[in-house]
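Support reply, case 0932

Customer input (verbatim):
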Amino acid sequence: MFLCAVLAGALMFVDTHFTRMESVRAQLSTLVAPIQWAVSLPSDVLNWGALALSDQRALVEENRRLREQLLTLSHRVQRMASLTAENVRLRELLDAGREREVPYLTAELLSLDPDPFTHQMVIDRGRRDGVYVGQPVMDSSGLAGQISELSAYSSRVLLLTDASHALPIQVNRNGLRFIVQGTGNYEALKVLHVPDTADIREGDLLVSSGLAGRFPAGYPVARVSEVSHDPGEPFATVKARPVAQLQRSRHFLLLFPPEPALNAADGRWHPDLDPVAIEAALRLVELLTPPVEEEE
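Our regenerated output:
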């Protein structure tokens, strides 16, 4: 060991003071490389085996999860088929027509309003494309807002989160109807005038109710993020998070909902005057009312 230490010191001294040792060191490295490879081979084999076994376990676990997911989805599809058939039978019983799909027009984002106190954007569709003021706008996740201003080739959209925007919604779980209003924050909406005893929970999906005839019913708007109850206050504080990706989406849909029913007297829309609903209600009353026998 003493001789090896002396030899190592001598080689270090020569390598430091003479440039010819670079070629010698390179040749020695080439000779030593197979030895280094042979020494590291067992550890490389062990690492490869461990990686192969872990990948196999991961694949087996993923296969198990996918099988469970497939079984769950298959059960849901079977249940959905039953519900669809039941829905068809009920519609036939009420003699009501099928719901029509809402036509739409695609649009792309042009710019965002730089004013921090307003949440608006400009899209590449305008009056020449059939766009109108008040038209609903949505992205791939849910409702985003409505058209507020028009030009020939572009339109300005007022987003849901703007403090001046509000729309009627309902809780998808139980049908409770409220009004949701923007807060000036892209990540927050507030649900107005929610009674302290109302059945609304964190995580509930809020969808458009279709009232007022501007937004079609059933489109996702927000998800409840917070419900707080203050003792002695008649209303609860309910906050929601928009489901639309307002700060990330670049492509949108402009919806063309069907014209609402109008009252001939005042020209305003009334949900109770929808002819399909009136006909269905009368049909149901006829089915549920027993016949009256006339006296002789």
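We compared this against your earlier run and they match. Two observations from our side: Residues 24-94 form one domain. Confidence is low (pLDDT under 50) at residues 261-278, 292-296. Please reopen the case if you see a mismatch on your end.
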